[in-house]
Amino acid sequence: MTAPTPHPSTEGRTPYPVGLLLAGRRVVVVGGGQVAQRRLPALIASGAEVHLISPATTPAVQAMADAGEVTWHARPYQDGDLAGAWYALVATDDQAVNEAVSAEAERARVFCSRSDDAAAATAWTPASGRDAGATVAVLTGDPRHSAALRDAIVDGLRDGSLAARQYRTRGAGVALVGGGPGDPDLITVRGRRLLADADVVVTDRLAPRELLAELPEHVEVIDASKIPYGRFMAQEAINRTLIEHAKAGRFVVRLKGGDPYVFGRGGEELLACAEEGIPVTVVPGISSSISVPAAAGVPVTHRGLTHEFTVISGHVGPDDERSLTNWEAAAKMSGTLVLLMAVDKIGAIAARLIEYGRPADTPVAVVQEGTTAAQRRVDATLGTVGEVVAAEGVKPPAVIVIGDVVNVLAAAFRP
Hints:
Number of strands: 17
Low-confidence stretches: 1-8
CATH class of the largest domain: Alpha Beta
Distance between the termini: 42 Å
């Protein structure tokens, strides 16, 4: 915790920082407005027995009461409401009520935080945040300054720019981390944090490459790229690599593009590690099947237009005996079709969909290198998409969207 120069209203009052263990202990919150709405989640998470006193509340606060997370006394504050309390928080817009609660708290020796007047309080609520089990709490006397410092510290911890590796307790094991669709900023906070802790990173060509530049020099990076019809690392070899490094006591991050379980073979890797008794953490990623269309102005669903979307692998064509897709059923659905890994098969796929009844004039958008600086969108119809993709020289990776949603935002979207 830090305590820089106090706000003028609290000049000369240096707080003593302490963490309150409130689990099972009575806490009284007076007021059910926006301030209470912000403060209640942390009190609930602490395990406190929270009693809320207010004639009315915001819908979000009422939802907490309806869920049994707090006990709501739907009435004004009365003297004696702090009996048995360990901590009180005053959050009303009525100064007389706030002063009355503070006075009772003073008599009962209950520490009391006031949202309206920090100088009249006996406790300050810090700007706080959590990361990986650690709580960061900042007290300055100025809420805005405290929040800015809190954000800087928590953001640094989450993105790995502020780290203390020598104190981490991460043991040997494997994390299957979805890196998102390509833009390095679209990896999840947890994914970036685990990446910062890695001893070994096993990556593929669709994972955000910029993230690798942030790794410390000691981290071993293993290329497990699977380039279509080119050099590749067999899945069995990838599994062995994960297992061998984990058994050698290292923390291994398997960094994938998109999500590990959306055509990413994450399930196969988890099973292989589980058979060897290796602990595995799975971190979902933002799938390109949804995010890439969104980045190109295409919502995969839209109210009044479609009630479903289907994600299909185009890795094998409709005439391939290995195909597990029911193309006839897909053609007859009225919703959106999203095709991954289908660039070189789109002509055959489109022909099959038309054969089974999908209209040839159905709009199609092909988005190459979605969410990256190289992103481009090519539009066509189901009847022309094969020719258009060839003529435009579209290359993988690309996401293909088929359906009326393709043009629904055309008038409003500006890339």
